[in-house]
């Protein structure tokens, strides 16, 4: 690990380390979600796939944490555990000191795929969640609430459209508004922008940031884009490559907010962080590959085969019964 990573590894990311090394700081935000020694795999027997092992994480109240990692390392598995959609094989996941045993409107999840109901309009899709969560509210209050979030994501002009009449970026906005409108305590964003083109992605990054700066909900965002992670997050936690992926030490971003993408490109701290996170990820991937090959450098062994007779009856071989 390089200097920045080691110097800025946030002790509270790793719960076990926190208890050993972190000095008691009364002003530090309390963790809202804690994962202790969490492991999760799929399948059984020879097809068993150990995806996550020994995950320790403190998600602090009000912070924006980005988890970055390579494809297939288990990022979605981690969000599903946090959302309560799946249960860990080992370890515990707590929210406000109580175990997470299933999904809850307190933890809003935005997926990579928008999962909107095709027969409902923009308003209908958002209202469905609002009506369920805020049953005790009057009809007018619920409608006003829906309209507020439609406006927040800039879709007031498209409120009567159905998903097939929207662009990818607009659909993802509906999905975001639907989750935000439920007023979850914790927002879980699972690569919400990865299906979008670069330009729309950039606009949506700014919108997510703007909304987060207004609402200051606790937010965990999964991404495979290091620049995106630095732009949005207070801390960045790298997910080491699987199988048996664990979290590496967190990088503290420490850049002033609000952040401007164009300015960041010239910011020395941004460049240092980008190098530090990228170098860390590349190094752990190389180590993981070495470990998987048993420490051997990959070499190709050629079989010791010599053709007996190249002039033989090839056609006969090709046509022989299998
Ligand atoms: N329901 C499941 N049943 C069996 N295996 C699964 C299941 N969900 C995920 N996996 C496997 O677990 C591993 C991690 O998958 P996961 O989707 O969590 O990774 P990821 O980091 O989110 O990947 P990506 O960035 O490509 O979306 C993969 O090998 C995947 O095939």
TrEMBL record:
Family annotation (CDD domains): ABC_NrtD_SsuB_transporters
InterPro entries the record matches: AAA+_ATPase (IPR003593), ABC_transporter-like_ATP-bd (IPR003439), ABC_transporter-like_CS (IPR017871), ABC_transporter_ATP-bind (IPR050166), P-loop_NTPase (IPR027417)
Region span, Disordered: 286-322
Keywords: ATP-binding, Nucleotide-binding, Transport
Gene3D superfamilies: P-loop containing nucleotide triphosphate hydrolases
Single annotated GO MF: ATP binding
UniProt-listed Pfam families: ABC_tran (PF00005)
Domain of life: Bacteria
Domain ABC transporter stretches: 33-266
Protein name stated in the entry: ABC transporter ATP-binding protein
Provenance organism: Roseiconus nitratireducens
């Amino acid at each position: 690990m390089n200097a920045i990573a080691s110097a800025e590894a946030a002790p509270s990311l790793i719960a076990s380390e926190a208890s050993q090394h972190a000095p008691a700081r009364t002003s530090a935000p309390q963790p809202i979600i804690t994962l202790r020694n969490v492991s999760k795999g799929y399948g059984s027997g020879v097809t068993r796939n150990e995806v996550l092992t020994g995950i320790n994480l403190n998600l602090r109240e009000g912070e924006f944490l980005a988890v970055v990692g390579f494809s297939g390392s288990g990022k979605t598995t981690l969000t599903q555990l946090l959302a309560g959609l799946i249960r860990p094989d080992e370890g515990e996941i707590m929210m406000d000191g109580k175990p997470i045993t299933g999904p809850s409107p307190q933890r809003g999840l935005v997926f990579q795929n928008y999962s909107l109901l095709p027969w409902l309009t923009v308003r209908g899709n958002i209202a469905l969640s609002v009506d369920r969560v805020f049953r005790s509210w009057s009809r007018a209050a619920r409608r006003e609430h829906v309209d507020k979030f439609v406006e927040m994501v800039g879709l007031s002009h498209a409120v009567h459209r159905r998903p097939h009449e929207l662009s990818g970026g607009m659909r993802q906005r509906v999905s975001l508004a639907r989750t935000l409108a439920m007023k979850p305590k914790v927002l879980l964003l699972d690569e919400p922008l990865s299906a979008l083109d670069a330009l729309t992605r950039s606009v949506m990054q700014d919108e997510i940031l703007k909304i987060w700066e207004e609402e200051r909900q606790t937010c965990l965002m999964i991404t495979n884009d290091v620049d995106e992670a630095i732009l949005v997050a207070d801390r960045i936690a790298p997910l080491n490559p699987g199988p048996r992926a664990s979290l590496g030490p967190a990088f503290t971003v420490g850049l002033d907010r609000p952040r401007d993408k164009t300015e960041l490109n010239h910011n020395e701290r941004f460049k240092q962080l980008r190098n530090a996170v990228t170098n860390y990820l590349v190094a752990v991937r190389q180590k993981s590959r070495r470990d998987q090959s048993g420490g051997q450098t990959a070499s190709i062994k050629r079989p010791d085969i010599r053709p007996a007779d190249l002039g033989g009856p090839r056609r006969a071989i090709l046509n022989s019964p299998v």
